[in-house]
Design brief:
The complex is a heterodimer of chains A (about 325) and B (about 350).
Chain A lengths: L1 H11 L4 H7 L5 H40 L2 H4 L3 E2 L4 E2 L2 H32 L2 H16 L2 H28 L14 H26 L2 H9 L4 H12 L1 H17 L2 H6 L17 H8 L6 H35 L6
Antiparallel strand pairs in A: 1-2
Chain B lengths: L2 H30 L2 E7 L4 H14 L3 E6 L3 H9 L5 E4 L5 H6 L4 E15 L8 E2 L1 H8 L9 H6 L11 E5 L4 H13 L1 H6 L12 E3 L1 H11 L3 E6 H6 L6 E3 L5 E2 L3 H11 L23 E9 L5 H15 L16 H12 L2 E2 L2 E2 L5
Parallel strand pairs in B: 1-2, 1-3, 5-9, 6-7, 6-8
Antiparallel strand pairs in B: 3-11, 4-8, 4-11, 9-10, 12-13
Classes of the chains: A mainly alpha (about 325), B alpha/beta (about 350).
Chain lengths: ~325, ~350
């Protein structure tokens, strides 16, 4: 209402209001310059912070780099007493636990978003959306405690024996069921990342213009075809962003994972076996690391964690771009 | 409401506001008169230390403590860099670390802690272990509860044919140091393969974060065996095994038997107190016990602060010793207090001792 009135007021002077606003002298170049400066400064600040982090990590990890070189990345030994350090079990644990987490969280998160944006009755959208967002507000240590006291025993007594019997021919589901381990870590991560993926995806889907849906429906597409071809495809890059946000959280999650992964620096194919992640070993051992090489090796792991995050994120984006080109859309 | 009363309310609010701002300005000014003593280090004695700092401000209101429980490693680093007035550690500094420090550091034992073996078996019977058996279990050589070696120590207890799930601390910790220090003393194989440290390369088992992580995993895993602090085991009513000590007796872990470990070691106490109390002599000594230390410079850089610090240390090893038991730490035995007195008297400024010799 107000906009209409204002528009009329502006039109009365012969110039439409938006143009009048931009043409008045107070919207001068000076204001633009200040605005530009503020924006540049805030971007520059973050670039500086990033550079500072990388620089500090590189400097602090120099002693370990000099001593172990790149062999650190593929080393499998982690013995603080004998000062033999290698990062591979931690890199493996970070990647596999995040992969398991995303394997569960992506379909769940995007599915929930589709329901909330496309299918849910109007009155249910806000409360359900709120509940999902609430999951993101739960502190990770609470997830960890829940993992130890509820999830791990449940996995040990019910899920893992059944999985072992049904799919035990796969190396993924072999070995004694401890409850804690890679599977528990992946499950916790999936629960923790679903709210991020679902909430962002829902916003993305809501931003898809209705003309997309109407066009697809007008062409005789079913509801599923409309969602799949017109809505999801349209919001693809936004959905990738949602998934990457979740993946970032999974790669860096520390507390909850530490509490349920079993903290054993070994590479085991089985998801039942305990593992270890880069973030966990930092959280576990940083405070009591007394020798210089030990401390430096931990910082080196921090640097590798940063590198792995960057590589995984870039790879995921590249993958989606290359796949996106081959999927043909609604016009076929 | 009439106008005058409104005015009165407004005036009262204004006064209250003014009072608030005045006190906000005045309070820090009053606090400035206090000397702030900065410390950092071990997490294990933190509950006791905060109790001490609290009680001590009643004895001497001119001093205020700020203690960051960032871990023993951090405590050693910060005192070595002189960024704090005192450090705290659950493990003694190594010769190497002492050499790197800018000046001579003293280890002042403050209190004792013990580590207990806890487990999850049907009915949770009280078990007995020897160091060899514990080492073999943690080395992954004994894998089932009905192993002959465990059975022979526990005649009369029915042990199930359940696999033993070993649980250890995943975070670097003084508790781990005490535990592996004990295993290293008992088992040569452990010493060679694994050794001593706040974190080690565990040959077997799962890692839990903190006492609560280890206890949580043990509670939820039938057949689990792990180690936690004595205080944690007592408050959470966890089963605790008796362990065979150097005199060949099976000793239940309690505050008294922990103190006895220090009393047993008193005869052979090294001058710098950097001593391991595991497997200590004495009929009633519990074998998996340790001091925890405060780290202070022998030559204090600041006379006033040094005087306050030595006064506090003197108080801590005397009057302060009535607080540990309530918080489930073991107090220092009397002969050891006498030995530490001599050490505190060595703290000096420009070579002059700071504590008033009584």
């Amino acid at each position: 209402m107000i906009e209409v009135d204002a528009g009329r007021g502006g039109a009365a002077h012969g110039v439409p209001l938006p143009r009048a606003f931009f043409l008045t002298p107070r919207g001068s170049l000076w204001g633009d310059r200040v605005f530009q400066g503020v924006v540049y400064a805030s971007v520059g600040l973050f670039v500086l912070v990033m550079v500072g982090i990388v620089w500090a990590l590189v400097v602090e990890s120099m002693p370990a780099m000099r001593r172990f070189g790149l062999a650190f990345v593929i080393g499998q030994e982690w013995d603080p007493v004998k000062e033999a350090f290698g990062a591979l079990p931690f890199i493996y644990g970070t990647l596999v636990s995040s992969l398991v987490g995303m394997f569960i969280a992506v379909p769940l998160g995007i599915g929930a978003a589709i329901y909330l944006a496309e299918l849910a009755p109007f009155w249910a959208r806000s409360p359900i959306g709120f509940l999902i967002e609430l999951l993101a507000a739960v502190p990770s240590v609470v997830y960890g405690l829940w993992g130890i006291f509820v999830l791990a025993p449940f996995l040990r007594n019910w899920i893992e024996p059944v999985l072992g019997r049904a799919l035990g021919f796969l190396p993924l589901f072999q070995g004694p069921p401890y409850g804690v381990g890679m599977l528990a870590a992946g499950l916790i991560l999936s629960i923790m990342t679903v709210p991020f993926i679902a909430t962002v995806s829902r916003e993305v889907l809501l931003a898809v213009p209705n003309t997309q849906r109407e066009a697809a429906l007008a062409l005789g597409a079913t509801r599923w075809e409309t969602t799949w071809m017109a809505v999801l495809r349209y919001g693809r890059s936004g959905l990738v962003g949602a998934v990457l946000l979740g993946l970032g959280r999974a790669l860096g999650e520390t507390m909850a994972v530490t509490m349920v992964i079993g903290n054993r620096p070994e590479i085991a194919l089985s998801l039942f076996a305990p593992g270890y992640t880069m973030a966990s070993v930092l959280a576990n051992e940083f405070t009591e690391a007394t020798s210089d090489v030990y401390l430096s090796a931990l910082v080196y792991i921090g640097l590798l964690l940063l590198a792995v995050t960057v590589i995984v994120n870039s790879a995921a984006r590249l993958l989606v771009w290359s796949v996106g080109g081959t999927v043909k859309g609604i016009r076929e | 409401m009439t106008r005058p009363s409104m005015l009165a309310v407004k005036r009262a609010m204004g006064l209250a506001l003014a009072g608030f701002w005045l006190s906000a300005v005045a309070l820090p000014a009053a606090a400035m008169a206090q000397t702030l003593m900065n410390g950092a280090g071990a997490t294990f004695p933190y509950p006791l230390y905060s109790k001490w700092f609290d009680e001590y401000t009643k004895v001497d209101p001119s001093v205020r403590f700020n203690y960051q429980s960032i871990g023993s490693g951090g405590g050693i680093r910060q005192i070595s860099e002189r960024t704090v007035d005192f450090g705290a550690s659950d493990g003694p500094m190594t010769d190497d670390q002492l050499k790197k420090a800018p000046a001579e550091l003293l280890h002042i034992p403050t209190v004792l802690g013990a580590v207990v073996a806890t487990y999850n078996l049907p009915g949770n019977p009280t078990l007995r272990f020897s160091g060899d058996v514990l080492a073999d279990i943690f080395l992954g050589k004994i894998t089932s509860w009905d192993d002959g070696k465990i059975k022979s120590l526990n005649s009369g207890v029915s042990l199930p044919k359940t696999p033993i799930v070993v649980v250890h601390r995943s975070d670097g910790s003084g508790t781990t140091y005490i535990w592996v220090d004990y295993l290293s003393k008992i088992s040569r194989e452990w010493e060679e393969k694994v050794g001593r440290g706040t974190s080690v390369k565990w040959p077997a088992g799962l890692g839990g974060k903190g006492n609560e992580g280890v206890a949580g995993q043990i509670k939820n895993t039938p057949g689990a065996l792990g180690y936690v602090e004595l205080a944690y085991a007592i408050t959470n009513k966890l089963p605790a095994a008796s362990v065979k000590n150097a005199a060949g007796k099976f000793i239940e872990p309690t505050i008294a038997t922990t103190t006895a470990a220090a009393a047993g070691a008193a005869n052979n106490m090294p001058a710098d107190f950097r001593v391991s109390l595991t497997n200590a002599p004495g009929d009633t000594a519990y074998p998996i016990a340790s001091f925890t230390w405060l780290l202070v410079y022998k030559e204090q850089p600041n006379e006033a602060k040094g005087r306050l610090l030595t006064k506090f240390l003197w108080w801590a090893i005397h009057d302060g010793q009535k607080y540990p038991s309530d918080l489930l730490y073991a107090p220092l035995p009397a002969p050891v207090v006498k030995q530490i007195e001599a050490k505190v008297k060595q703290i000096s400024f420009h070579g002059k001792p700071l504590v008033a010799v009584r």
